[in-house]
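Let us practice reading a record.
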Amino acid sequence: MQLTIATSKPFSFEQTLRFMARFPPCQPSYVIDKDSLTGAVAIDNKAVEFTLHRDLTLETTDHRALPIVAAMIGANDDVEAFYAVARGDEPMMRRIDQLHGLHHVRFLTLAEIAVYSVLMQRAPIAIASALLRRFREAFGLRAGSLYAMPDLDALTTLDADEIATAIKHRGKAERIVEVVRGIRTIGEDLLRNAPYEHARDALLAIRGIGPFSAAAILLRGLGRMDELPWLPSFAQGARELYGHPVDQAVITRRYGRLIGYWSFYMKVGARE
C-alpha cells in the first residue's frame, strides 16, 4: 500500500537522507539512495519493510508502520519555532542555513536505542555501529537484506550468553540484558509522557544507564527536546560553535524546551 507522511514545514528530505547516510548507526538499519530510504520495523513480532520516497509517500504492507516512520524522521517537529528562537544567535543561524529543513532523526524504536545506548558506551561510533550490525543480524527479524530490531518484549527473552556470542563482548551483553529489561519495566508511555526529570531518573535507576545513555534514549530515541544535560561533549560542541566557552544558563534560558534542537544542529553541523 502507498501512504503519505505529512510534515511540518520547512522539511528537507535531502537533508534527512544526508544525515542518515553519514550517521554510522543508520548503516545496519537502512538502504539509502538519492531518492529514498528503505528499512524494516517489527510489528506483532513480524518484520514489516517500508520505503520512504522523496515525495514522502510510504510504501509498506502494514499501515501501522506510518506513525513509526513519521516519528523517526521527526515529521511533526516545529522547526520553525526553533528557527525563530535562534534569530540573533549568529553562529546557530549559520548552522541553520547549512542544515535548513532538517528535522531531528530518531532511532526507529525504543528497543533499538535501548540496545545502542549500551553499545555506544566507551566505544567510538564506528565500533558501536558494527556491534549494532552484529546484534541485528543475530536476533533481528529478516526482511530482504534488512533486519528489523525485535521489540522490547522479544529482547527480554535473550540472555547474556546469547548476546555475548553474537557481539563478542561479554560486558556489554550483560548490560544490554539489564537495560532492556529495565526499560521494558518502566514502559514507553512513561518515558515519552512523564515530566523529563521523572523519565530521566527512572532510566538512571537502571544498572548500566548513566547520564549520557539516559540523554540518548530520551533525545535520540524518543525525540524529547525539552531538556539537555550539560555533559562534556555538549559543552565542547558549544565552545567549537561559538569560538569560546559559553554560559550554559544563557543557552538553556534562550532555547528553553527547544534545547534539544539546539544540540542536534550543533552536533550535526560540526560533523558535516
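A brief commentary: The longest strand covers residues 36-43.
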